[in-house]
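Handoff note, outgoing to incoming analyst
You'll be picking up this chain. Sequence as last confirmed:
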Amino acid sequence: MTSFGKFIKRFLLAFMLLVVVFHVLVAGLLLIWKTQPINNSMFMLTHRLTGGTVTQTWAEYDAIAKSAKQAAIASEDAKFSQHNGFDLEGIEVARKKNEATGKMSAGGSTITQQLAKNLFLTSHRSYIRKGEEAIITVMIETLWDKQRILTAYLNVAEFGKGIYGIEAAAQHYFHKSAAKLNRDESALLISMLTNPKYYQDNQNDRRLRNKQRIVKKRMNSAALP
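Most recent structure output, in case you need it:
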């Protein structure tokens, strides 16, 4: 074997070892976070490393208003309580849209997939990241129940510059706890998730308010875990 061949072999072995170590770390954190509050994520860590301040307070499932949980499912993942982490129909729709536009503009991501990205990955769009996201999604769905997944999602989602989690968002925008959010407030906060930093300073944006109305109409049909 040539020197170059040996180098490639060592490189591949080192890369495979790093991949294994990464997934072992992910599994370990998921086991810890199955019962313990999550006060950090890749998105929060990135925000801190770039000099930002993170505001987040953990809220358990029963400390989050029913309307907020309904809004999240109605807006982000209508089949959340039924699927195993992947909405195959949504993925197919996203694939066709991406083929039509020639870029990865749509992801068809479920709540679990978004949680996997927020906790361990970055917002960079690529098929490699989507593949890693899929692996972590399977791990989350295997180790956690649906209530834990929804609770974690609502606690680590970004609602503005440095504002993470539904409790911090409720306090920042409405000066109340997440448990006391009403339907209008819940629908508005969840509608902000598509572009939270922009909507933080543009609360009357027409697209935001239109989505708020749509989410509010769909909330009653959302099946909670």
